[in-house]
Specification:
With 667 residues, chain A is α+β, with helices and mostly antiparallel strands. Helices cover 32% and strands 16% of the residues of chain A. Chain A folds into 3 domains: 43 residues, no CATH class; 196 residues, Dipeptide-binding Protein, domain 1 (Alpha-Beta Complex), CATH 3.90.76.10; 232 residues, Dipeptide-binding Protein, Domain 3 (Dipeptide-binding Protein, domain 3). In chain B, α7 packs across α9. Classes of the chains: A alpha+beta (667), B mainly alpha (328), C mainly alpha (345).
């Protein structure tokens, strides 16, 4: 019965493992996957990679990152030019953006029909829309995670305070539309809109890094109509699920648990201005792109977008996702370590993969992963003085990052000598950290000097007991920590793994009851300050939840940090950074492990997919050859039908004699 | 009869209150509002952002007892998270998810479809396979067919369900390429493709125990006197099995079925998780992993309600069907 | 540290207990007949389970060697920790490689370097170079603990509650029934995860958590059976004669439940060991269990070429143990079922 059912199901399902409708075979649709649904698509709040694939393509920003140039460069997006800061007499600095004319929002029922635009439900963008979004970031009720990054805008914090006070005094005030509330409270002093298409930002001091924030969706123009309309009442969606932007793609289907669909925007401003820097696939850039085939030569200088649609499907588990990629049902994706050896041999694509026309793109992400010591801890931290410093140095000398990368990441990482990744100012490729190589004898010597000869703690006569705290209880995670523990065991140190669930781990971190841990950081923007601030004393975790999880407090380091933080990239800045790295080298609050490398696999029919690292892939530059894809899919996915017949025959053969015997017996 | 009904229902209500309490205590033993906030806002959120989130979501109250300044009288007990918990659950005010502020009621409606499209075929198919196989085996009892099937069931029972899932995905999805490894699409033209593998895995992993159970019931029935009488009368064996044995063995089978109905809704947690089916089961698993207390308590509450209602119905149907049971 | 001393004492206690039970069985006609019957029907299953038990016992007896005896061993830290007989047999501190190697291979699986112990790893090595056969053997103790210890926790509790509820009825019955229903209403997986998160992931804590979620079904059976027994005539007359309740339970109720206990123990055992694999998938499994090996190996199956020895070792061991216990439970049910006993006599 089971087998007939199976056979029935087989024929019923028209026996194919293709998850997409056959009608879509020849359309220019990009297929990819997502693991976690975005928590929110509100541009003031969305801060994770899962949401930025959508927000990065639905929203346009004043500035954008150049697609092909590395190190990263900013180009004008909605703005006509990248502004220069102009200093004022009182020490404040102005940035003036000139907005393009004629940019429309996506058509949506939240707008009234617009006679000037042929009765369509949309309108033009003005600088007031950007000012509105910036005020939303300042709005304490919205709780934007990047609110503090705009604190150098004149009047930003004051605006938040006035808004909160007005709401507390007058409960009915909060019922009014958001833009009315902001206007009532007087707006932000440092954000001005002198003309319809001009935006002026005034900062309290020079800070060129602020321009990077204008390349992120946080500062996209957001129409007040959308905010007012999409409040979740009377069957309307919430703003977090209904983003309206000006971008080349529109979010048409958003079923968070299993698919998201971006459709091409037929009224995108770029279609009318095919020479703008943000529309054209750049001719300039890393020549490797073209020679390796990542960027198709035929597309250079052509105006985007090329795709008609992008479809995301939910894949919770990595193995099925990768297998679907191999079957041709996803156009690109990362590689999982389990399938690595089938795909990569001798650091290049395997012959089997190359025969299928696939491409491999490697890029170093601007990130750092490290083992940290809690400097507040008495044994490993600053209280132990020189003794614990030598202990940290010794522990730093036995971690073989190369082997770790081989075992757990298939070598997809660059061993880190300092916390600055390649591509950032201050990164020196010839710099060698004396404590980031494997030298067991030197480590043993240091331990002896520290009074822990052979790893034995003189106080107990037993090997020194340390704890490695982590919030990751998965088997895979524990194996990685075991690797480090085995390395320290060589010195005779007894490091115990204290793996709890994530909440309990966070509790431990908050209370300061942790000793050794691992952590990572991925850059927000391409400035070394975005890494060096991780060890600033004021940002210590014990002070109040800052990102300095090692609780490193060094007054020299802090002094140097303040000196370099807002400088432009000149020789003096480079010198200061080198000095800061020297301090970290000696005091070892971290054991720097690696900068992650992204290996992106893509099929031959996918064009122009260059790894971006710092920003989400702009789908406008990508294209697919749908006919080639359909052909390959068919060739790679012929179902193997013969086992079904074999099973049926076997089943029949097993039962038939029994039935025959029984009936014979009955006569 | 009415008195019995009233007692059973009030008993069920008491149980629901108990379940809610247990849930509250357990959850807040593992986590606390700060952790829920942090999971929702992400790692980089500062303390003021977290505090604001807690106020927005009503988590800035104490857990069990409120002895802050300015609180008096009954508010000591009512201005607490526990009271809010009870109030909202008992008025079916499910509210919004802690993870992303989506209305939970809507989520449940969205997830019910995929869950049911998995669990109902799984259940029905499992039932058919189990009963038919057991009937078949009871028919051929004590022959070598009986022995083969029983051994097969024993072997099937001894394999961990995880191995079935992994093996099934590897063998059927990857090597034979009959069905997609995972995923889901509600489009009726293709939905069967995605459900085939999880249903198959579910049936294969469960038929062993089911068949043995039903077989025991059938064999017990066939040993009874009326069957011997029927045979002596000259009824064909098949007629005996289907007409008499199956009918009378139906009572314990039906009890099994009614007991299983509530679980149809809560979804097959593991299968949904592995095969990427966006149903209520995977909603629950995500709520656990994502520290989403609002969603989790709603799911458990509904599950408990369904279970208790199912129990009451079973008791009543049992009493109605079998007059020998005393209503003490 | 103290853990290994408790473990040693427990082994001694177990051995003594085994001797006591064996003698009790020998003295009772019914039970020795049943035992002989069982041996006749399922000799292989019993032998296999016996082998597992011996391995687990060997792994439970541990002591700390003097540091002098461990001098020269690469891993000095291990010298200060208690090591069991299995640990000493396999010497995992030295008997290891850098990374993966196939069973009985001479070269590493990926780096193709000559192994430190070519041809000596019967089941190959895992990602960190540990011998897979060693890990499988270590998993035996964990599995038997999870199955056995939890059952030992569950059965007395379920018996106590079930008998009280069934025998005394009234308020006690209501109370026990209430607790049972509340626990049964919460999906057991959720309850399990919640409890383990609260208690921690040590073996004992997981056993307690599993115990809390598993006692309800046996309690229900016990309660039902006790209700039936209570109505029997000889019980009624004993009560009329003034025999104390405790005596009645001890002499009449309990013995009639023993066969249920034995069967439930076996069934519970297999159910618990199998559900531990699910816990490992969810990240709350016990350290060193087969479930963890399977979870780890889950990814290895997708490699090309496939790394199969990790999952093979754990799966075969798990399957064998569960199958043998299932077979024994089946045979026991047939032997001790009052109806079949009546038919046989």
């Amino acid at each position: 019965m089971l087998l007939t059912a199976a056979a029935g199901l087989l024929t019923l399902a028209a026996c194919s493992n293709n998850p997409y409708p056959s009608a879509d075979e020849d359309r220019k649709i990009l297929y990819t996957s997502f693991q976690e649904a975005p928590r929110t698509l509100d541009p003031a709040v969305a801060y994770t990679t899962s949401s930025s694939v959508i927000t990065g393509n639905v929203f346009d920003t004043l500035l954008e990152y150049h697609y092909r140039k590395r190190p990263y460069e900013l180009i004008p997006g909605l703005a006509r030019q990248v502004p220069e800061g102009r200093a004022n007499a009182d020490g404040t600095v102005n940035y003036r953006f000139e907005l393009r004319a004629g940019v429309e929002f996506h058509e949506d029922p939240c707008f009234p029909p617009n006679a000037a635009l042929g009765g369509r439900r949309t309108r033009h963008v003005t600088s007031a829309d950007i000012a509105f979004q910036l005020m939303r970031i300042a709005d304490p009720a919205i709780n934007s995670p990047v609110r503090s990054n705009f604190s150098q805008v004149v009047g930003f914090a004051a605006f938040s305070k006035r808004l909160a006070e007005k709401r507390k005094l007058d409960p009915s005030f909060d019922g009014r539309p958001a833009d009315a509330q902001y206007a009532e409270v007087g707006g932000i002093a440092g954000i001005r809109t002198p003309e319809r298409n001009t935006l002026e930002i005034v900062l309290t001091h020079a800070d060129p890094k602020i321009l990077y924030w204008f390349a992120m969706p946080f500062t996209t123009p957001l129409p007040k109509e959308t905010v007012a309309y999409y409040d979740g009442n009377q069957g309307r969606a919430r703003l977090a699920d209904h983003p309206i932007g000006t971008g080349p793609f529109i979010l048409t289907i958003y079923e968070k648990q299993f698919r998201m669909i971006l459709d091409r925007n037929p009224h995108w401003w770029g279609l009318a201005d095919s020479k703008a820097p943000a529309v054209v696939l750049p001719v300039e850039g890393d020549p490797e792109d073209v020679s390796s085939g990542t960027i198709d030569k035929a597309y250079l200088g052509r105006p985007a977008p090329f795709l008609s649609r992008v479809e995301f499907r939910r894949e919770r588990e990595g193995i099925p996702r990768f297998n679907k990629f191999l079957q041709g049902y996803y156009d690109y994706g990362g590689i999982i370590k389990e399938s690595f050896d089938a795909v990569i041999q001798n650091d290049r694509l395997s012959p089997l993969m190359r025969a299928r026309g696939m491409r491999l793109d490697k890029s170093v992400e601007p990130s750092i992963f490290y083992i940290g010591f809690n400097m507040d801890d008495p044994t490993v931290g600053r209280a132990g003085g020189e003794r614990s410093r030598k202990l940290r140095q010794a522990m730093s000398l036995v971690i073989d990052v190369k082997q770790y990368l081989e075992l757990f990441l298939n070598g997809r990482g660059v061993p880190a000598q300092s916390l600055l990744p390649p591509g950032l100012y201050g990164y020196n490729r010839d710099y060698r950290n004396p404590f980031r190589k494997v030298d067991i004898d030197k480590a043993r010597g240091l331990l002896k000097e520290a009074g822990y000869a052979g790893g034995i703690d003189p106080a107990t006569g037993q090997p020194l007991r340390l704890t490695f705290d982590t919030g990751n209880t998965t088997t895979a995670g524990k194996l990685q920590y075991q690797f480090f523990i085995n390395a320290w065991r060589q010195l005779g140190l007894d490091v115990e793994l204290a793996a709890t669930n994530y909440n309990q781990f966070q509790d431990k971190v908050r209370k300061g009851s942790y000793q050794i841990f691992t952590w990572g950081w991925i850059a927000d923007y391409p400035d070394p300050e975005n890494f060096l601030f991780l060890l600033q004393g004021a940002k210590a975790r014990s002070n109040g939840n800052g990102p300095n999880t090692a609780n490193f407090k060094d007054p020299d380091y802090d002094r140097l940090y303040d000196a370099m933080k807002n400088r432009t990239n000149d020789a003096e800045r480079g010198r200061i950074i080198a000095e800061m790295l020297k301090i970290l080298e000696r005091r070892r609050p971290w054991i720097e492990l690696y900068h992650r490398e992204a290996y992106e696999l893509s099929h031959g029919w996918l064009k122009n997919a260059k790894p971006t690292g710092l920003f989400s892939t702009p789908f406008k530059y990508l294209d697919v050859d749908a006919t080639a894809r359909a052909k390959s899919r068919l060739a790679w996915n012929q179902p193997v039908v013969w086992p079904a017949y074999v099973l049926l025959i076997l089943a029949f053969a097993a039962i038939a004699p029994g039935i025959v015997t029984f009936y014979r017996e009955r006569q | 009869m009415l008195a019995y009904l009233v007692r059973r229902i009030s008993y069920g209500a008491l149980t629901v209150l108990g379940v809610l309490f247990l849930l509250f205590i357990l959850f807040f033993a593992i986590t606390n509002p700060d952790d829920i906030a942090r999971k929702a806002l992400g790692e980089k959120a500062g303390p003021d952002v977290i505090a604001q989130w807690k106020t927005n979501h009503g988590y800035d109250r104490p857990l069990l007892f409120n002895n802050r300044t300015g609180v008096s009288g009954l508010a000591h007990l009512t201005d607490t998270l526990l009271f809010e918990h009870y109030r909202r659950m008992l008025t079916f005010d499910f509210g919004r998810s802690d993870a992303d502020d989506a209305p939970i009621a809507q989520r449940i409606l969205e997830g019910a479809g995929p869950s049911l499209s998995l669990t109902v075929p799984l259940f029905v198919l499992g039932l058919i396979v189990g009963v038919t196989l057991a009937l078949f085996v009871a028919f051929f009892r004590e022959t070598y067919i009986d022995w083969i099937v029983l051994v097969g069931c024993m072997l099937a029972m001894s394999v961990a369900i995880l191995l079935y899932i992994i093996g099934g995905q590897y063998l059927i999805g990857m090597q034979l390429k009959w069905f997609p490894i995972s995923g889901y699409d509600p489009n009726p033209a293709v939905v069967a493709r995605f459900l085939a593998l999880p249903v198959l895995v579910g049936v294969v992993s469960g038929f062993g125990a089911d068949t043995r159970f039903y077989r025991t019931v059938f064999v017990e029935e066939t040993g009874k006197d009326y069957v011997r009488t029927a045979r002596a009368k000259g009824c064909g064996e098949i007629r005996v099995m289907v007409r008499h044995v199956l009918r009378n063995a139906l009572i314990p089978i039906l009890t099994n079925i009614v007991m299983a109905i509530p679980f149809l809704f809560t979804g097959a947690l593991l299968l949904e998780s592995f095969f990427g089916i966006p149903g209520l089961g995977s909603l629950t698993v995500e709520a656990i992993q994502g520290n989403d207390f609002s969603t989790l308590r709603t799911m458990v509450y509904i599950g408990a309600l369904a279970f208790i209602i199912g129990q009451i119905l079973t008791d009543i149907s049992y009493t109605v069907a079998d007059p020998r049971i005393r209503l003490s | 540290m103290v853990g290994y001393i408790i473990s040693n004492i427990a082994v001694v206690a177990l051995l003594i207990g085994f001797v006591v039970v064996a003698r009790a069985i020998r003295s009772s006609r019914m039970w020795s007949d049943a035992a002989r019957n069982l041996w006749r029907r399922r000799p292989f299953a019993i032998v296999f389970v016996g082998v597992f038990v011996v391995i687990a016992l060997l792994d439970s007896v541990a002591w700390i060697s003097a540091p002098a005896a461990m001098a020269g061993v690469g891993d000095q830290v291990a010298a200060s920790k208690p090591r069991s007989i299995i640990d000493r047999l396999f010497a995992p501190e030295t008997f290891r490689e850098t990374s993966y190697s196939a069973p009985l291979a001479d070269l590493g699986f990926y780096d193709k370097q000559r192994l430190s112990y070519p041809g000596a790893h019967l089941l190959g090595t895992d990602i960190l170079g540990n011998d897979v056969l060693y890990r499988t053997f270590k998993g035996v103790r964990v599995a038997l603990l999870i199955g056995g210890l939890t059952s030992l926790i569950v059965i007395p509790i379920a018996l106590a509650f079930g008998i009280s509820a069934g025998y005394f009825g009234g308020r006690i019955d209501d109370g026990v029934f209430f607790v049972m229903t509340v626990l049964a209403s919460v999906p057991s997986l959720l309850l399990l995860i919640a409890l383990i998160m609260v208690l921690g992931t040590g073996t004992l804590q997981v056993c307690v958590a599993l115990g809390v979620t598993s006692w309800v079904s046996f309690c229900r059976i016990t309660r039902g059976e006790t209700l039936k027994i209570r109505e029997a005539e000889y019980i009624q007359s004993a009560k009329a004669l003034g025999v104390s309740d405790w005596r009645i339970i001890q002499r009449h109720v309990l013995p009639n439940l023993i066969h249920l206990v034995v069967i439930t123990f076996a069934l519970l055992f297999t159910g618990l060991v199998l559900s531990e694999t699910i816990l490992s998938y969810l990240g709350v499994g016990v350290q060193g269990s087969w479930g963890q090996m399977i979870d780890q190996a889950r990814d290895e199956l997708s490699r090309t070429p496939v790394i199969w020895w990790n999952i093979a070792g754990a799966s075969v061991a798990l399957f064998t143990l569960v199958l043998c216990v299932n077979l024994i439970a089946d045979a026991l049910r047939d032997i001790t079922d009052p109806r079949t006993r009546r038919e046989q006599s």
